Amino acid sequence: MKTVLITGCSSGYGLQTARHFHAQGWNVIATMRTPRPELLPDSPRMRVIPLDVTLASSIAATIEASGPIDVLVNNAGVGLFGAFEATPMDTTREVFATNTFGVMAMTQAVLPLFRHRRSGMVVNVTSSATLAPMPLVAVYTASKTAIEGFTASLAHELAAFQIQVKLVEPGYGPTTRFAENGSERMQGLIPEAYVPFANSVFEAFTKPSAVTAEVDVAEAVWRAANDTSGQLRFAAGADAVALAARVSP
User: Fold this and answer.
1) DSSP 136
2) Is 140 a catalytic residue?
3) 80, 81, 125: which is closest to 103 by C-alpha?
4) What total number of domains does the chain contain?
5) DSSP bridge partners of 28
6) Which of 13, 140, 172, 194 is catalytic?
7) Backbone φ and ψ of 124, nearest 5°
8) Could you list the residue range(s) of the whole structural domain that residue 186 is in?
């Protein structure tokens, strides 16, 4: 029976992914900043552990408490929507602390264990915003694009140790807490000069031709975690799949 450790399980993609892996018979270590075990099945195969991916001490404590794992899913992330001109650099650093450095730190923490065992997998959840430019999400896109390059390079670096690294690229998920999770840091990020343009972008988001549901991401992470073909990228959601098909060479 395999064990998966998933970050950012308090809502959205992470929560559904934890439920999905549990339903498939895996042991699941669901992590979140403030543990809410009531969100997940009451089962000996489900453990809920506190984790803040921006704190080295929290990462170390989680890895020690988790014991052996087979798959790490780096899902924890924060959103940001706004004009880059108005985005304080402290806010940019905050986004990168979770979306980029948090992913890298969690990955680095498990690699010695995987390398010693000569097996293991890391699945990094990014965004379809990395596949094609989108307006008013420059900082968010940069934080996720960094992980795309990091993952692609790391996949080559770790192949000799039988460690696999994968990417899951979700599309637009209107039912997630993306905006809610970033609402405080988004205050004041649409200056008056940008309002007409921002309104047109908001209008487009209200009429999507296709969207991504939490289950789409959970299923894509599951496919990635069980893949043996060497495939690196897994688009998640109808909109992301269509976009990936358009931009692929």
Assistant:
1) T
2) yes
3) 125
4) 1
5) 4, 46
6) 140
7) -105, 125
8) 3-247
